Amino acid sequence: MSKTAKIAILGFGTVGSGTVEVFYKNKSAYEKSTGQIFDIKYILDMRDFPDSPYADKLVKDFDIIVDDPEVTVVAELIGGNTFAYDYVKRALSAGKCVVTSNKELVAAKGAELLKIAREKNVNFFFEASVGGGIPIIRPLQQCLMSDQIISIAGILNGTTNYILTKMLKEGAEFPEVLAKAQELGYAERDPEADVSGGDACCKICILASLAFGQHVYPQDVYTAGITSITKEDAEYASSWGGVIKLIASAKKLEGLPPEARRLEIIVSPMFVPFESQLSGVDDVFNAILVKGEATGEVVFYGRGAGKFPTASAVVADILNALKSRDSAKKLSWEDSGHDDYVINYKSQKHRFYLRLNNANKASVKKLFGEVNFLNRKNEPENEIAFITPEISGGELEEKCKNLKISGKMPVLEL
Amino acid sequence: MSKTAKIAILGFGTVGSGTVEVFYKNKSAYEKSTGQIFDIKYILDMRDFPDSPYADKLVKDFDIIVDDPEVTVVAELIGGNTFAYDYVKRALSAGKCVVTSNKELVAAKGAELLKIAREKNVNFFFEASVGGGIPIIRPLQQCLMSDQIISIAGILNGTTNYILTKMLKEGAEFPEVLAKAQELGYAERDPEADVSGGDACCKICILASLAFGQHVYPQDVYTAGITSITKEDAEYASSWGGVIKLIASAKKLEGLPPEARRLEIIVSPMFVPFESQLSGVDDVFNAILVKGEATGEVVFYGRGAGKFPTASAVVADILNALKSRDSAKKLSWEDSGHDDYVINYKSQKHRFYLRLNNANKASVKKLFGEVNFLNRKNEPENEIAFITPEISGGELEEKCKNLKISGKMPVLEL
Q1: Where residue B185 falls among pLDDT bands split at 50, 70, 90?
Q2: What average pLDDT is seen over chain A?
Q3: Does B3 score more than 90 pLDDT?
Q4: Which long-range contacts (CB under 8 A, 24 or more apart) does A87-90 make?
Q5: Using DSSP, how many helices (H) and how many strands (E) does chain B show?
Q6: How far is A315 from A18, CA to CA, in rounded Å?
Q7: Element (H, E) at B209
Q8: N or C: more exposed end of chain B, with fewer CB within 10 A?
């Protein structure tokens, strides 16, 4: 047996305490399967936990951890971009492996942190940052080893998926479903990051960076949330033959060499046809559809959040980091080489669902050409809903200038 | 750059030629991302391919390959258990890494071959043996690193899934759908291994061996095929609230320590409720549902067969083997320690769907207790269909001794 490998946990909140719990529950199994001895030496948190069985491991000063040469792996489970960024940078710079569940951090600083990890020959893993307990980062890497990824589309936020599922199935409106979700603990007291699409945006940035090799920053991605979706939109989706889902998607423009690669990325509620595997993903579940040139479509499905699913992904990363610490097996991507790596939303083409008031079929046809008109029960006389032909975001904006729009979103292409 | 790593391909059939094609298409990308140079040195096949661009690599004598110290990885894509077994054993014994897509071989000889690989400190990988291009073996390993697997249930055979989908959706009978599937190339001219459940059985043996740590042999697994399913059964499934799928499932008996572990494994058409993620997996697609203690349910979905999906999994294994050849990262399980590791079908408990002729509701209730009677359109007077309470396979057999059974299968429990 080799000497004990020491781990430090940053943050003793939901994921942090779940990680400690999962770790100690299975510690002897890990040691048996790897032939190594592991232990958690420190848990960093600003709060006091006098009654915790781990009280003796709790520290408040990160210096103790970063200066302790015994600590080989640091798990950052604080979240956000301030302390977390500082601690992760210092841990990597000190030659420690880092694992994190922090999607904001990886989406904002991934390229920089991966560069430090490369220079220091240590691992920086973040399986838990996307899809909770669903293995997606490593399987994506595995697909990538032998194949070229064409596109990724996912339902990456469980809270909004729960809300949209309830709206569709129970014909309820957004505010009441949100209140219910908060009551059940599925939505935060401040639901902004979820319902605005910001959380899903961070996650698609991470997946796209990995799949296409250059960092995608959240501020470059057009992101629309679900707050303005109504049950009327859901009824039109249903009559059209699909559902509304908050989709985060990334695809590479065809026909360009890797050095001139450009991406279409968007986070938006979309009309998703029943034929799509993503249409049946309900409640708090997540799913990620990866399309590869040789592999075809592969879908990964499961609980995208939650204490124990996320904690088990963190522990898997810790064990992977310890296992390969002498032969750093690195995830990697570069900082983007050119400013227009992500194509502006106004130039991205989609078919769109539109719901208008005070318009008529003749004027709609004149404006958009051959559209597909939709119906719903008890549709008011002055309401008209349809699917446009393929059109760019900019053109659509132009055409809609003088229209009274009550609903608008793209259609997910299969 | 290190010296060129040489690969040998055994078998130049569908998967073999796909592997060569995928490899050369992406060769420069692999070399760029790994900093290694790769090439295929030999392709072994008994046939002649005078017009192939790879004609100069073709050999007929395996000795040339096994005796060539330049060859570091051998990809076995012949299939079956005769030549493939001999070649794989000799390649591993000669200190070469081996990757294979051969489910019969891994299911029959996995424990033995993994032992040789361990002794020789080389890799033996078989990602392509289950689920074609769906990454499942490594993600399962990844789940396993931090979590305990409770159960696995999958649709592991695309041919039978295509046939059952058509029977349900088009109300067609088995023989005509099989003929259509053969015409389309979805079913082999000799469909025995698919329709008997034998192919799915090999795959669940591999997954169960990996998930639960001890080898499961196909002959220990109760395996029923789909040949006796009729469209009447499909109609009853539909009225019950589900579909019929060929399910391969493995779960560990709760409450036993790892050293006394016992498994319930079965391959059988089953009634699958619409609520299950597996119910919506149609046509030639495969899906594998893994339930972990901490992770919860995770589903992997995609094309379970086909030239390029399978080839891309083979190439990923080749690259993984080359990448880690100095620090063999081994998949592993042991030979089973006790004879009764797999629980006999007669002792496994399920709820069952039964369709009887010449019975009445009163006698059924007397025999089985509280059953759930099912109906279908144009049901003949002497037909009676129902779902039994939970009952063991042996008890069911006993109770059915004097009944005229026209349909019988277990219900998949969620």
Answers
A1: confident
A2: 92
A3: no
A4: A87/A10, A87/A62, A88/A113, A88/A124, A89/A113, A89/A116, A90/A62, A90/A66
A5: 13, 18
A6: 10
A7: helix B198-212
A8: N
Separation of alpha carbons A106 and A216, rounded Å: 10
Strands A352-357 and A404-410: antiparallel
* Rounded Cα gap, residues A29 and A31, in angstroms: 5
- By annotation, the residues of B acting in catalysis are 203
- Of the listed ranges A167-171, A298-302, B5-9, the one predicted with least confidence: A167-171
| Residues of A classed as catalytic | 203
Banded model confidence at residue A32, pLDDT cuts 50, 70, 90: confident
Distance CA A143, CA B313 (A): 8
Q: CB count, 10 Å around CB of A208?
A: 28
* A182 CB-contact burial (10 Å; exposed 0-12 / middle 13-18 / buried 19+): middle
Measured between CB atoms, which of B135, B295, B300 is closest to A312?
Answer: B295
Question: Sorting pLDDT into bands at 50, 70 and 90, what band is A1?
Answer: very low
- Average pLDDT, integer, range B392-405: 93
Q: Which two tokens stand for residue B151?
A: 């159960």
Can you give the pTM of this predicted structure? 0.93
CB-based contact, A282 to chain B, within 8 Å: no
**Do the chains contact at A145 and B316, CB–CB below 8 Å?**
yes
Is pLDDT at A140 greater than 60 in this prediction? yes
Phi, psi dihedral angles at B171 (to 5 degrees): 60, 30
Please report the ipTM that was assigned to this predicted complex: 0.91
Does residue B92 contact residue B115 with C-beta atoms inside 8 Å?
Answer: no
What distances in angstroms separate CA A78 from CA A83, B123, B176, B312, one per listed residue? 8, 38, 60, 38
pLDDT value, residue A326: 52
Residue A251 bridge partners (DSSP): A151, A264
Tell me the sheet residues that pair with B130.
none
pLDDT band for position B331 (cuts 50, 70, 90): low
Instruction: Tell me what pLDDT residue B337 has.
Output: 63
B36 vs A339, higher pLDDT:
B36
CA angle B200, B128, B317 (to 5 degrees): 155
CA–CA min distance A134, chain B (Å): 6
Predicted confidence at residue A328, as pLDDT, reads 52
In chain A, residues 144-163 whose CB comes closer than 8 Å to chain B: 145-148
Q: Which of B392, B345, B342 is nearest to B208 (CA)?
A: B342
B-chain residues near A145 (CB < 8 A): 30, 33, 315-316, 319-320
Kindly list the distances between the CA atom of residue B413 and the CA atoms of A76, B152, B361, B409, in Å, as whole numbers in the listed order: 38, 12, 25, 13
